[in-house]
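Table S5 (text form). Sequence records supplied for joint modeling of the two-component complex.
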Amino acid sequence: MNAVVNAQIESRHLLSGNEAVARAAWEAGVRVAAAYPGTPATEILENLALYPDIHSEWSVNEKVAVEVAIGASLAGSRALAAMKHVGMNVASDAFMTQSLAGVVGGLIIVVADDVGLSSSQNEQDSRYWGRFGHMPILEPADSQEAYQMVKRAFALSEEYEAPVIVRMTTRVCHVKAMVIIEGDRIERHAAGFQKNPQRWVMTPANAKPRLPVMHERDRKLRELSETIDLNAASTGSDRRIGFVTSGPAFMHLRETFPNAPVLKLGFSHPAPLDKIRDFAAQVDTLVVVEETEPLLETEIRAAGLAVRGKDILPRFGELAPSVLRPAIKPLLGEPYPVPARSQTDIFPRPPTMCASCPHLGPYFALSHIRNLNIIGDIGCYTLGAGHPWNALDTCISMGASLSMAHGMDKGRGESDAKKSIVAVIGDSTFLHMGMQGLLNMIYNRGNITVLLLDNRSVGMTGGQENPGTGQDLHGLPAPRVDFAKLVEALGVRPERIRLVDPYELPTMVKLVREETKMAEPSVIITNRPCSLTDRFEHLKPYTVIDDKCTGCGNCIDLGCPAIFVARRETVTAKNGKSKELVFARIDNNACTGCHMCVETCAPEAIIQPQPQLKDRVIRIQPHA
Amino acid sequence: MPESVLNILVVGIGGQGVMTAAEMLARTALSQGYDVKKTEVAGMAQRGGVVSSHVRFGPKVYSPQINPGEADLLIGFEVAESLRWLPYLRLTGVAMVNTLRIAPPVVSVGLYDYPADPIGELAAAGIEVHAFDAGAIAGELGNLKLVNTIMLGAISDHLPFPAEILKANIVEGFRAYKPKLADINAQAFDAGREAGHVKTLSDRPAANA
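The corresponding structure-token record, covering 833 residues in total, follows.
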């Protein structure tokens, strides 16, 4: 990463799209950058954090990040907010109106669509937001373009006084490709906030006159789209099909049909309909190749042009060469190569929780208690829905666990009569959007049990900081929220706020049992750090004494990936029924000595061969 | 410089160093004047999942992705993963395979079976297979983390630039950031290079498979 920060002008580097965005924003003189971590956009801010001349921060959610960027823009500074596609849903309340008011310092929103759902709960096409919010959209196809377009986006934003969306996808963010660094940082003077209530106070009376201004801006941007060099057609020798495309689909298309004419839209909204009309006149058939929704296609068709698109191409997932070939070759009446070998039938490797993961204890407890509806949230703990816990029943959006659990409590159906309702949420998700759900539930006299799994990190995205960790984006000490005090302030009675070490399995199980039976809301807060972060203390591995293992399988139920089945044996029990015994072993290289499995082992077959801290690990005090 | 693009698929399990190895290949290719693209399919940012890294380089690279049936080289850090990605290899492709077996929990608890003879299946597919126990070589050298460099050494004679250039890039990287590990990585590279020269024949059950 430092290679990017120190890159000399006129040099070639292997950069990810995210690294290229950060370098370009720095060169463009960005002064404020904010984001909430989210795959595949996380590394944009992690890279911007390496530049000392920028205020960069993890904001608590995407709406806050955009509002921070808006404030900086109004002060005259160039500003950037970055997020994954679902972050746009959260942030939209802010940018939908700011687009009407406009901007001062260049304001860009870099959004990363997880096309293909490598690590997301849905697949969204963020290009809708440009149409919805009257904002131009730039779509880089690789790192080099991301680097160039981010710089262009700042200039365009200032020229047209509009926020500009830079739409990336996973296949741009996380691909490393050659980037030629062309410039150095250009410092920009910020004039400071110029008070102008008619412009910046969006009351109905002030907002109304802005509407025609915004529509006039759309018209000018449409004119620009016809002439800007980012929208360029390449002539091809084979004019049977001409393609209109944007983003990384362009690269797949060039790879698959090197001789076809292609109109590539780097500035894809507003679309250059005249240019497209001219291009269409030069080819037999016009095909739009866009990830993921048929936005350009619909607009081109509405302009009266005959066009193919989603009638032959999928409306979801990446348009890789392996997808384009079978979809388009038949239009040409040509055969396409079929892979010579069929897919091999190999077992899956589903993502799993880590050895010593502090979520293992709570899920061990949840999987051993009956009659629960377990309403989940976004984070590593979503994996609790999988094997062997099967202890998570829903997952939709950031913070939804608390509010949905409350609704499920109030809307109880017949089969829920005797069930307790549990919400499971992590520290960062709670601070992002969960607090409001808890406040709402308390205010509206709900009764759910909240498991607040505080692992002091944004785990799933790679262990980023948040206001609950005590550190900021730069790793510097920062004020740390006290979750117990916070939930008490939101109205949970102190008696019902239970702090627990999630490694203490018997206590964990007992607490969940107790609290789910209470006639009032309670919050159980765990306190062990994510085992992939520096806050986790690695201890010496445990081992199983084979002679003592009775094959009960209790430790396997923990779901720790360091514990595996060494052998199986079928025995006949006293009641005549046959029973399968599973004898366990511990993988020395994977075990980090957390001792959770020791708590599951009645015959005391799991030991630490070289005890290092008396005979047990140090027990940490709740929120010590 | 060859006119066509070389496609290298590096596969394994999260945490094994697949992405680091791919990065080293990509950086070396860039240093040799090639256009380069490298892309990963890593799934959720969790350990233990399937990881595949595509490295493509040549005079000009458009798509970062390797299509099924178009990989020239397959570097497998785990044996079942090598078999999983076999359909991506050309019929005439070369597979450099570490014979390490890592069974995930779903296999360990009996929900799925681990393939009985993955090396045999690979060799029977008609490709050129080089299978060896990189972990054993790393163990002899005294550091299990050397597997990455051993695998790069093993593939180094199948690249369009001299093996010494890849070796020099790896060793220089260590000399700059972890100088104590530079010499041992040079040894690991050479040991891997030698191990990679041995072809695994299809009529012979592979060792450790």
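Note: The two ends of chain B are 37 Å apart (CA to CA).
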